[in-house]
Amino acid sequence: MNVALWITAGLMAAVFLIAGFNKVFIPRQRLAKAPGAKWVDHFSAGFIKTLGVLELLGAVGLILPAVLGIAPILVPLAATGLAVIMVGAAVVEFRLHEPRHALLNLTYLALLIFVAWGRFGPESFA
After folding, report:
1. Which residues lie closer than 8 Å to 24 by C-beta, 6 or more apart?
2. Directed axis angle between helix 2-25 and helix 45-68, to 10°?
3. Which of 33, 41, 104, 125 has the greatest count of CB atoms below 10 A from its CB?
4. Please, which pLDDT band fits residue 35 given cuts at 50, 70 and 90?
5. pLDDT tops 70 at residue 126
6. What Cα–Cα distance (Å) separates residue 95 from each residue in 22, 44, 50, 75, 101?
7. Distance CA 36, CA 56 (A)
8. Count of C-beta atoms within a 10 Å radius of residue 2
9. pTM of the full predicted structure?
10. DSSP per residue over 3-23, as a string?
């Protein structure tokens, strides 16, 4: 189970590093032209940048504390924080009638819940 948690956390870290990087460094107008990015038009540039920074921090929090052995409790907390973001993302996508993207967000949500559950519970670092 520990290996599955590491693989899942690594996969989610990669996803959120890419997503966060895009939100922080790609201009809002260009980001809005991407497939499935209807949501961008409904939020300010500041919100999008903040969301990107939170995703980058969450991605780092999924891996770095466990690898360094410093405050490993941050791993399930990062997974929980990213899961909350995914709930919001799924709601927005459903409201914008983008069911495919909403299902992708719900898939990420399930994977993040798995990491949070595993690292808070049976495979905690404590």
Report:
1. 49, 52, 53, 56
2. 150
3. 104
4. confident
5. no
6. 23, 18, 22, 31, 11
7. 20
8. 11
9. 0.94
10. HHHHHHHHHHHHHHHHHHHHH
